[in-house]
TrEMBL record:
The lineage of its organism: Bacteria, Pseudomonadati, Myxococcota, Polyangia, Nannocystales. Residues 14-353 form the FAD-binding domain. This is NAD(P)/FAD-dependent oxidoreductase. It comes from the Bacteria. Gene3D superfamilies: FAD/NAD(P)-binding domain.
Amino acid sequence: MTDSTRANGGLRRAVVVGGGVAGPTVAMFLRRLGLATTVLEARSEAAGDEGAFLGLAPNGLQVLAELGLGAEIQARGAVCQGMRFTNARGRCIGVIDHRDHAQRFGAQMVMIRRAELHRSLMTAAGERGADCRFGARLVALDERPGEVVARLESGEQLAADVLLGCDGLRSRVRALTLPDAPAPAYTGLCDLGGFARCPGAPLEPGWTVMTFGRRAFFGAFAAPGGEVWWFHNTGARETMQVADPEQRRASILALHAGDPGWIADVVRATPTLLGPWALHDIMTLPRWHAGRVCLLGDAAHATSPSAGQGASLALEDALVLARCLRDAEAPQAAFARFEQERRGRVEAVVRQARKNGDGKAPAGPVAAWFRDRMLPLFLRLGAAAQARTFAHRVEWSPRAE
């Protein structure tokens, strides 16, 4: 089914590079406008179990609701009731309560496995008529009068009126289109995680516990059904160079020695460790588009997980860019309008995520004493900023002026 208002500028064909969050979502909105849309994902369909889990905030969930996917995605994840922060001795030093967010923002944050979200969105895009291809690796781009051509590793060439780069932090589209763009910056943190069954862990279902350990940061979400979804952040880059999974597990356990004992129990109970990943972000790019090519999501403004907004910002981007293409007379005008509308918001979130990540660094005794006493104040300020982010709404119906 197509929208009553189709894209201006005579657009008929679109190529979307990237099958994560932004890619299939923008493809669904383009199909609503009647564009023949192809989604290219470099990884094979069988490789869809990458990554750990993420949070979908109310501002992102409202985009999924616009597509009629809100209830389905929520059913595939679990509602987060809030976050409790503890120190290395296990004492609670602060709380952020989400239980009134459905009334305040229209939805509560949903925790979901990353692979499950990607599969669900790609499936939904295919059901709406997008040509979703796995194992389709982009190697080159050519601009011709009135079109852009994607050249694939297989030798196939796909011509389109617009090409959208939704291929993440290490975007191939960005490298080809904006070769002078700054490289992603290392935030100083590495990330590992996993899924475990640990009945003895003192975790309340639906709540996330964030622990400022003596030498590393640990987060755990108690999913309904008894599974624990967890992540571990450390600034020790040597963790990235440990190839043997059991040596890596031993490294995590050593970093949490002296922290609450349930952390070690969860790590030991995890069948497969996920990661490690060095966390990077993109604080700003000089521009997001060139010619008939535009970047969105992490390809344009990658944020570390420390703000819990990466996926939700990508969802917002998808709706806004499709709306701009619907309402502008030419792709270049649509891309300029999109960047103008989005840049300030997303770069503020990237900065906040970097600040949040800095707070995870190990603290000495004096700094830890100060943090434990000041955290309730910092959380109140953070909750106010979070509320402004969660309350943000991008609408499909109004015309982009």
